[in-house]
Amino acid sequence: MSNEAATAPAAGTAPAPPAPEPIPHGLGASLPPADARAKTEGTFPYAADLWAEGLLWAAVLRSPHPHARIVSVDTTHAREMPGVRAVVTHEDVPGTALHGRGRADRPVFASEVVRHHGEPIAAVAADHPDTARMAAAAVIVEYEVLDPVTDPEQAFEAEPLHPDGNLIRHIPLRHGDPEAVGEIVAEGLYRIGRQDPAPIGAEAGLAVPRPDGGVELYLASTDPHTDRDTAAAAFGLAPEQVKIVVTGVPGATADREDQGFQLPLGLLALKTGCPVKLTATREESFLGHAHRHPTLLRYRHHADAEGRLVKVEAQILLDAGAYADTSSEALAAAVAFACGPYVVPNAFIEGWAVRTNNPPSGHVRGEGAMQVCAAYEAQMDKIAKKLGLDPAEVRMRNVLATGDVLPTGQTVTCPAPVAELLQAVRDFPLPALPKDTPEDEWLLPGGPEGAGEPGAVRRGVGYGIGMVHMLGAEGADEVSTATVKVQDGVATVLCAAVETGQGFTTLARQIVQETLGIDEVRVAPVDTDQPPAGAGCRGRHTWVSGGAVERAAKMVRTQLLQPLAHQFGMSTELLQIADGKITSYDGVLSTTVTEALDGKELWATAQCRPHPTEPLDESGQGDAFVGMAFCAIRAVVDVDIELGSVRVVELAVAQDVGRVLNPAQLATRIEAGVTQGVGIALTENLRTPRGLIRHPDLTGYALPTSLDTPDIRIVKLVEERDVVAPFGAKAVSAVPVVASPAAVASAVRAATGRSVNRLPIRPQAAVVT
């Protein structure tokens, strides 16, 4: 009898169901996010969903002027309205009146001078949200309107807008021979507009007073311990009297919550003795939180006859808006990476960050690096045009590699496979040209209803190579603490690293699964009773917090294996854990993790702190960065040269990732970053004529949608592990944002022959007459 006959099911019986597919497990697997189902079903608890008994509602009165002197503030009418429980102004701030993420220079409430449109003046708590809004509007403020300073170039000569002056930081970078010249000189003036991080979901929070006179704040904070310390200082309380509980973060590509939003909330709860909730409108979010720095850049590149760079000269001016925030850090990145991932023997860069009466600027993904990338890549296109060379070839002749020296004097010790990345996108097949037929009209720039003619469409191919630094810079103490506990066969991770959409909670589960062989791993909610883990930006939680989780898990692993190793007279290094089993090198020992645990409760706490960095000195020199990541993108665009409309056809991406920890998650992060870059290149521009935010909503501010997203081809992921990083992995989200706007602009330049020196690209810049 054949095997087929022997195993065939009897007549009338159903075939056995297929075996279930194995659940993804450990590092390198595409483990799905633990909160994916809750978010999909709408049951995930966001801050806007919170409720408490006896809840009051808050509203904030904001300045309608970008610059004004406050003559008087009268809260009488607001206080007398039925249902109003409290009104607070600068006079009701019991502690430190100033706050700020990078520098404490911003008042909780404006008292004498208003410095930007939307600055908080007063806040109200009432028993209904409509009452709170009406009461805030009833606060009478008498202003003496002043002329705003909105041009950052005028800030150098204008009267001081702040007691600290208008200049926040100046970095003069000097590297090499100032007399060096090249046979080819390319010059350019570039302007980068203001982008809003446009966080998904409403900015919201709940403040609950505590019996000890303290307060608990439930917020979608991305840096809870910093926010706690800021709040405690403003409230006149000890840090242990303020607790921040991180609620579900809808997603963040910058500082998720405006501290000027959090502080009035806590003050009202302390004053009323009641829980107080505040949900910001989209307009209030545009007015309150920080935006990307608008930047003016002047460049002069010198190159030899072969296209190799000899010297780069640049002036970089960041518009910080009314307050410093993180402008000093953004300027350091802009100056340090002003020449891009290219070998430049001589560089002379002047960088400034100045205050104006424009909306505040701060941390937004790729800050500083994105602005200069758009400029230096335009300069590379100009050099290629002057020499009659292929733009990719000019870049290839200058690319940076491991062991090269940055203009800051820092040697690149991390993997820097820039040539490999560029070659990968250069060699990737180009997309097919659209057919000139009515059936394919949807391919035209402008979409299905576009008014253009196929004969006016020109295709262009361009390149963008970006670089970013990971973690903090210039001496920032990057440290994170994590605890791993195992009880009843379940592992729990306690770490104050906030899940902002970057996938930390998934990574933490994967680390513990791989290290301990335990399938069920939970990540505890975040609050400030846990040790600090720092802000969720620049890939720091993958590196620092992930490193802390790994170290804690390895300590628990040792606790688990030591009794077995002692029993069999061997070291723990001779035992391995895989697929839930513990085995020895010689096969003598073989047991399951569950049997080894045998009801034990194990736990360990560990820290991860990367190697130190140093501030840039008076010449812009210093080892300021822990590590760097690189990305090359080739953009293909179609441009209607009569209408100036642009359609991004395809973006081919090659990226330096160190190690792929979660393939699906990594691809999603890259695609999201590229899409964000397309918005920066073509649509996103927060207009602020004379300092007033025009159209502070998602109708006037055009984010790219799924219809605007081009084909994104991830053609190569270079897995050259960074030996100083846990797992060898690098940050992946920011560098596509940096490179893609430059690549799109380069492609439009190739299609039109125009200089394209401004982002976002305006239609008139793509019209060919």
TrEMBL record:
Q: Where are the annotated segments for Disordered?
A: 1-37
Give the matching Gene3D superfamilies.
Aldehyde oxidase/xanthine dehydrogenase, a/b hammerhead, Aldehyde oxidase/xanthine dehydrogenase, molybdopterin binding domain
The chain positions of domain Aldehyde oxidase/xanthine dehydrogenase a/b hammerhead read 41-147
Alphabetized InterPro entries for the sequence: Ald_Oxase/Xan_DH_a/b, Ald_Oxase/Xan_DH_a/b_sf, Ald_Oxase/xanthine_DH-like, AldOxase/xan_DH_MoCoBD1, AldOxase/xan_DH_MoCoBD2, AldOxase/xan_DH_Mopterin-bd_sf
Instruction: Give residue spans, biased composition: Low complexity.
Output: 1-14
The family database entries (SMART domains) matched by this protein are listed as: Ald_Xan_dh_C
Instruction: Give the GO molecular function terms.
Output: iron ion binding; oxidoreductase activity
Q: What is this protein called?
A: Oxidoreductase
Organism per entry: Streptomyces griseoviridis
